[in-house]
């Protein structure tokens, strides 16, 4: 029992990441009809927003400390961050410590700008092109984006820790009447789950309850008619692309403390998130979120030893196996609409 | 000629000439010149050009004709490679049984995957094929290690049985792949006034097989079967209403396409007896999609060009390091030389991915029909002169590749 | 690889070859001019450095490449000579190898055996490389070693840690300076016993591929020999990035030590996740919970940041060593590039010097004579103390470093501290040890 609760918890935070990326992908696909292979790269850039902000906050000048030596035996140059000079050592350290949450504020304008530039500069010209062309050009863009990041940040992962107060883990087991240490869960992952739920809720509320969202939903259903009504749907779609980029970016920012960001983390997520989108049903926002959590939880269960001892290697293939079964039994995924992407 | 139309015959003859003269065409620069870096006429790369050409031709049969975008084609290439290496380990080092078995195994594999995946179309089909290929890759890397030798890849060793051949050569080495005694790795270098040209046995075997594969593909393109496949692409629904079931046709072409991939895998193993799991990874499947679309999907020669383009980048651009750059630009004054090298540095050597990504984007944005369309535009521009250039370019845009 | 070079007179015959297609070239088999593959004839000799330049190990590859460039510079008489001055063999004098200037070509392995072989082949077939070195994973090393054996050139392995490279996949033309999984385990076990006691229960997370398995097998054998109990061994997929579902059950298993048989990105992520779960703050069976990482890579460990503090592992070499060889190497590498070298850089630099020295002593580039010069070669002054290149399996035997993540690092490079230098005698094993059996060196192949 405790093991099952534990794996459901694990699945939820893995699922949050899948759900957030799949949500953004579906927003873009549903509104613009574009298959965006660069979406994983946007997630990665989000994580690097956190790294960049951390770098900016720790911008330093060097003070030579004669008492210590560096590896070549010369006097050691100690880096002193400018924030320490401005706010004092304690406050400066706190600001640096909180760089990941601060990066949320930093990343929203950056990601929206990247999204808008991408849509206006490139994607716009591909609305009438076949899906294969869209896949190819966004895939090319993904390679370019990640190579640029690699050029500036290197190939190795970069540690981006969460604030100190979120270190360590929370003992759920005690809460539920189990022995201590049976069900523990890191605080930051709980934060991540709550954050994901918040973003998903905000996106749905935005589409459901605002005029802007209403127009966009109308545009998703029938673009031409909305255009005939004299509404500038293009501009709204541009904003939607920026929004989707911001969702992917925020997912990346908050993910940075869980796994140190590296330049190819987007590609690692890309294939999985496409599987998630398709399992959820192309173009269905609730489907994307549901499939994200379902696959996350199933993946966690497959990693349990009890299951692996019966089916060795099941954790390697579970996602794909589930995708195959769902697609064969439910032709358009869990919640897909008829006629989307079938030609 | 050969039962082909006039235009197809021309293309076919061009392919034959290109394939047989590749050692000359790919080594345009003298061996000791600074541009020799760009020569691609060494056996391994020439072999890769034609082998991946076969792979892309086969992929194009499926994608170009029916519009079914398979994202798991590398699984067949990998299965073919494993089958061939096992043949070398168990039977003999002759490449014929290995290549035959690799086609059979890939074909059977394609029957299974195709039967399941073809129940869906569009992106759902793509994801199904992707899922099968990723499962094969993940399992080959880990659980199936007794069959695939996992991460290290399947290699031939001194203590393989090889019932129709020798386990080891007389001097204690591992025997090499051959065609009835003709060693695949054997090559001859001919020096002509500074140029040197490599003639490799393995390359010519691959080239002949590629020419045959190309011929078969052309015949399929022009056959009633090919017409039926195009009908499936343009409107499957209508076909269905006329009382025809499209599934057997799509399955047939899926299996043929899988056997092409298996053939390519078998040839890869014949040239270099090793099979590793990353041949099945989704990036490898993505690569053949890129090759086909880059060259021109649905065209006859496009996939071959696309395959050559990508392999050239992978093997030539990745080897240009800063030392080579300094060699090229040493004629410039020091300051300028460093500026030029700093500018070029991100794009070559370890930055070859960046260049490749940019090239993809440029080709897709400006040449939707791939390299073939580029060639056609140039040809048209030359024929009609500059005045009509604009109109011609606009008309030349291809039927969508999907 | 038989390669014959013809003069202009051969052109006529060549025309016939091109025309006849495949059948004719065998007539040239007997006309091979050189004694071995890529015999250097001019005033220079070409070495091939095949490292990952793209993909997750690109930074390690870049560091290896720096070391190669430095080695070539030193061989050609540039720089301060580095470890050439401390090397016990004094045949290298800064005039290249056998008087020939050393040139090199580079390639990208992409950490894929296929791409690595393609790249190595182009070095051999196109650039005329007479030795291939580099690599950052065992899969690639074994694949390229096999290729070099077939082609008839020497392979000087870079960073490869699997037992198989000099075990069941060993080849006569391949040589490894780096240590292996068995040595890691043999060196670590006594230190772990000293620090954590004899009565411990270990839980293994193991990367699900060949290297992970050999590493796990070695550690399990070594720790069980000193009384530890192995509670569980869980295999994790190589492509896994989030290890939470594998780590969450650890605390409840009754184990009090977690062994992470992971490398590279896997290691960074699993270690980060384990620390996130607060494992190191817990008490199990009345003891502090501990984590062990058998193979450390300092470059990669940087990705785990503070999480490495206090965690034990092993490494082939570390820049803080104070012997003359290491100091000289760090000095010349640090002066040129501004930061200390990694263990990958060290092993690549050493391998290049060892190759050059062996050629010099053999008086020939012929792979068979070079191989004979390396076999059984005893040397010192290259940073690892007295070292033997064993003839039976072409594996180097030398001291192994046990390291621990440093509590108070002084700089971003100062991540690890050397806890113990385990003497060579303690990590030696018989060539027919069961973990290494099943292979056969075969006979050396000069090609041609």
UniProtKB/TrEMBL annotation, chain A:
Origin, by domain of life? Bacteria
Which species is this record about?
A: Salipiger mangrovisoli
Q: Which residues cross the membrane?
A: 16-35, 42-64, 102-123, 190-216, 237-258, 270-298, 310-328
Q: What subcellular locations does the record give? A: Cell membrane
What family name appears in the similarity comment?
Belongs to the binding-protein-dependent transport system permease family. LivHM subfamily.
Q: Which InterPro entries match?
A: ABC_transp_permease, BCAA_transport_permease
Q: What is this protein called?
A: Branched-chain amino acid ABC transporter permease
Pfam families, A to Z = BPD_transp_2
Q: Which CDD domains match?
A: TM_PBP1_LivH_like (cd06582)
- How does the UniProt record describe the way this protein sits in the membrane? Multi-pass membrane protein
Assigned keywords, A-Z? Amino-acid transport, Cell membrane, Membrane, Transmembrane, Transmembrane helix, Transport
Query: The organism's lineage?
Result: Bacteria, Pseudomonadati, Pseudomonadota, Alphaproteobacteria, Rhodobacterales
Automatic annotation (TrEMBL), chain B:
Q: What superkingdom heads the lineage?
A: Bacteria
Q: Which terms are listed as keywords in the entry?
A: Cell membrane, Membrane, Transmembrane, Transmembrane helix
This protein is called Branched-chain amino acid ABC transporter permease
Record's bilayer topology term = Multi-pass membrane protein
Q: Does the keyword DNA-binding apply?
A: no
UniProt-annotated location(s): Cell membrane
The uppermost taxa in this organism's lineage are:
Bacteria, Pseudomonadati, Pseudomonadota, Alphaproteobacteria, Rhodobacterales
What species was this sequence derived from?
Salipiger mangrovisoli
Which Pfam families would you find in this protein's record? BPD_transp_2 (PF02653)
Q: Which residues cross the membrane?
A: 12-29, 49-71, 91-116, 123-144, 201-221, 248-268, 288-313, 325-348, 354-374
| InterPro entries registered for this protein in UniProt | ABC_transp_permease, LivM-like
TrEMBL record, chain C:
Does Transmembrane helix appear among the keywords? no
SUPFAM superfamilies from the xrefs? Periplasmic binding protein-like I (SSF53822)
Q: Where is the Leucine-binding protein domain?
A: 45-406
Q: Which Pfam families match?
A: Peripla_BP_6 (PF13458)
What name is this protein filed under? Substrate-binding protein
Q: Which family does it belong to?
A: Belongs to the leucine-binding protein family.
The record's CDD domains line, in alphabetical order, gives: PBP1_SBP-like
Ordered alphabetically, the record's keywords are: Amino-acid transport, Signal, Transport
Signal peptide boundaries: 1-35
């Amino acid at each position: 029992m405790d093991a099952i609760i534990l794996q459901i918890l694990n699945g939820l935070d893995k699922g949050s990441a899948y759900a957030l990326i799949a949500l953004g992908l579906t927003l873009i696909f549903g509104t613009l009809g574009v298959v965006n292979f660069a979406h994983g790269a946007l997630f990665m850039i989000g994580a690097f927003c956190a790294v960049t902000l951390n770098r900016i906050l720790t911008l330093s000048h060097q003070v030579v400390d004669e008492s210590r030596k560096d590896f070549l035996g010369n006097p050691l140059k100690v880096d002193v961050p400018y924030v320490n000079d401005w706010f004092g050592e304690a406050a400066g350290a706190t600001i640096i410590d909180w760089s990941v949450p601060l990066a949320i504020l930093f990343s929203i304008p950056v990601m929206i700008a990247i999204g808008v530039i991408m849509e206006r500069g490139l994607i716009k010209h591909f609305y009438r092109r076949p899906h294969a062309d869209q896949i190819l050009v966004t895939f090319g863009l993904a390679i370019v984006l990640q190579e640029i990041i690699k050029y500036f940040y290197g190939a190795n992962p970069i540690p981006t820790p969460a604030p100190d107060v979120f270190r360590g883990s929370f003992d759920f087991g005690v809460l539920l009447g189990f022995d201590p240490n049976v069900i523990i869960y890191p605080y930051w992952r709980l934060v991540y789950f709550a954050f994901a739920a918040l973003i998903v809720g905000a996106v749905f509320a935005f589409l459901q309850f605002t005029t802007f969202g209403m127009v966009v939903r109308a545009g998703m259903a029938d673009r031409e008619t909305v255009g005939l009504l004299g509404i500038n749907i293009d501009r709204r779609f541009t904003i939607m692309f920026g929004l989707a980029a911001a969702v992917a970016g925020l997912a990346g920012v908050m993910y940075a403390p869980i796994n140190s960001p590296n330049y190819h983390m987007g590609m690692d997520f890309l294939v999985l998130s496409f599987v998630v989108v398709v399992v959820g049903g192309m173009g269905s926002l609730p489907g994307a979120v549901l499939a994200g959590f379902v696959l996350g939880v199933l993946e966690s269960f497959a990693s349990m030893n009890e299951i692996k001892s019966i089916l060795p290697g099941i954790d390697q293939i579970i996602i794909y196996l589930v995708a195959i079964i769902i697609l064969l039994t439910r032709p358009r995924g869990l919640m897909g609409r008829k006629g989307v992407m079938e030609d | 000629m050969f039962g082909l139309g006039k235009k197809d015959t021309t293309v076919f003859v061009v392919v034959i000439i290109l394939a047989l003269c590749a050692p000359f065409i790919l080594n345009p620069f003298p061996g000791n010149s600074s541009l020799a870096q760009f020569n691609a006429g060494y056996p391994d790369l020439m072999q890769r050009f034609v082998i991946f050409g076969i792979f892309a031709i086969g992929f194009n049969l499926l994608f170009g004709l029916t519009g079914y975008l398979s994202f798991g084609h590398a699984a067949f290439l990998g299965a073919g490679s494993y089958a061939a290496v096992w043949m070398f380990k168990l039977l003999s080092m002759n490449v014929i049984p290995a290549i035959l078995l690799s086609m059979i195994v890939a074909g059977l594999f394609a029957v299974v995957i195709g039967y399941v995946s073809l129940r869906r179309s569009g992106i759902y089909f793509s994801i199904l094929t992707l899922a099968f290929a990723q499962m094969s890759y993940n399992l080959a890397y880990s659980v199936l290690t007794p069959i695939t030798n996992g991460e290290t890849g399947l290699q031939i060793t001194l203590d393989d049985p090889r019932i129709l051949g020798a386990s080891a050569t007389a001097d204690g080495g591992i025997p090499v792949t051959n065609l009835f005694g003709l060693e695949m790795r054997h090559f001859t270098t001919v020096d002509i006034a500074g140029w040197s040209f490599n003639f490799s046995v393995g390359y010519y075997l691959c080239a002949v097989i590629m020419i045959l594969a190309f011929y078969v593909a052309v015949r399929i393109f022009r056959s009633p079967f090919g017409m039926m496949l195009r009908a499936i692409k343009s409107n499957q629904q209508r076909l269905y209403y006329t009382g025809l079931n499209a599934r057997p046709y799509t399955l047939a072409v899926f299996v043929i396409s899988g056997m092409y991939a298996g053939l390519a895998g078998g040839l890869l193993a014949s040239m270099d007896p090793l099979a590793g799991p990353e041949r099945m990874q989704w990036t490898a499947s993505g690569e053949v999609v890129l090759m086909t679309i880059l060259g021109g999907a649905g065209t006859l020669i496009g996939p071959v060009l696309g395959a050559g383009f990508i392999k050239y980048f992978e093997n030539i651009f990745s080897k240009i390091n800063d030392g080579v750059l300094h060699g090229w630009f040493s004629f410039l004054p020091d300051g300028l030389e460093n500026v030029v090298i700093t500018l070029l540095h991100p794009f070559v050597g370890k930055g070859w991915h960046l260049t490749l990504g940019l090239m993809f984007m440029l080709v897709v944005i400006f040449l939707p029909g791939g390299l073939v369309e580029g060639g056609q535009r140039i040809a048209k521009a030359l024929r009609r002169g500059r005045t009509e250039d604009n109109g011609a370019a606009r008309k030349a845009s291809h039927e969508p590749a999907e | 690889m038989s390669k014959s070079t013809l003069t202009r007179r051969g052109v006529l015959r060549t025309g016939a070859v091109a025309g006849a297609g495949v059948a004719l070239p065998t007539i040239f088999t007997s006309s091979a001019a050189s004694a071995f593959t890529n015999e250097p004839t001019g005033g220079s000799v070409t070495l091939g450095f095949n490292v990952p330049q793209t993909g997750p190990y690109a930074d390690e590859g870049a560091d290896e490449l720096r070391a190669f460039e430095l080695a070539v510079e030193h061989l050609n008489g540039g720089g301060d000579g580095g470890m050439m001055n401390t090397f016990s063999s004094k045949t290298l004098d800064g005039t290249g190898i056998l008087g020939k200037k050393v040139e090199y070509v580079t390639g990208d392995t992409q950490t894929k055996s296929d791409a690595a072989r393609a790249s190595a082949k182009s070095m051999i077939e196109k650039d005329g490389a007479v030795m291939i070195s580099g690599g950052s994973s065992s899969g690639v090393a074994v694949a390229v070693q096999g290729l070099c054996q077939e082609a008839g050139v020497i392979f000087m392995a870079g960073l490869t840690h699997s037992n198989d490279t000099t075990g069941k996949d060993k080849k006569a033309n391949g040589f490894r300076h780096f240590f292996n999984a068995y040595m890691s385990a043999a060196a670590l076990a006594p230190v772990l016993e000293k620090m954590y006691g004899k009565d411990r229960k270990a839980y293994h997370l193991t990367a699900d591929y060949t290297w992970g398995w050999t590493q796990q097998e070695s550690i399990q054998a070594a720790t069980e020999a000193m009384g530890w109990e192995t509670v569980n061994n869980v295999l994790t997929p190589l492509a896994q990035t989030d290890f939470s579902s594998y780590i969450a059950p650890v605390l409840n298993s009754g184990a009090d030590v977690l062994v992470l048989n992971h490398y590279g990105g896997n290691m960074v992520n699993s270690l980060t996740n384990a620390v996130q779960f607060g494992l190191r703050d817990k008490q199990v069976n009345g003891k502090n919970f501990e984590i062990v990482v058998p193979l450390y890579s300092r470059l990669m460990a940087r990705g785990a940041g503070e999480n490495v503090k206090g965690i034990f592992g092993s490494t082939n070499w570390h820049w803080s060593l104070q012997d003359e060889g290491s100091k000289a190497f760090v000095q010349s590498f640090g002066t040129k590039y501004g930061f200390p070298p990694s263990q990958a850089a060290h092993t690549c630099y050493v391998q290049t010097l060892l190759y050059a020295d062996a050629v010099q002593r053999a008086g020939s580039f012929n792979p068979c004579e070079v191989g004979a010069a390396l076999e059984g070669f005893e040397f010192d002054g290259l940073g690892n103390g007295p070292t033997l290149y064993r003839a039976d399996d072409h594996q180097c035997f030398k001291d192994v470093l046990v390291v621990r993540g440093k509590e108070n690092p002084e700089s971003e490079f100062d991540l690890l501290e050397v806890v113990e230098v385990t003497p060579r005698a303690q990590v030696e094993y018989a060539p027919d040890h069961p973990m290494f059996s099943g292979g056969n060196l075969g006979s050396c192949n000069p090609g041609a």
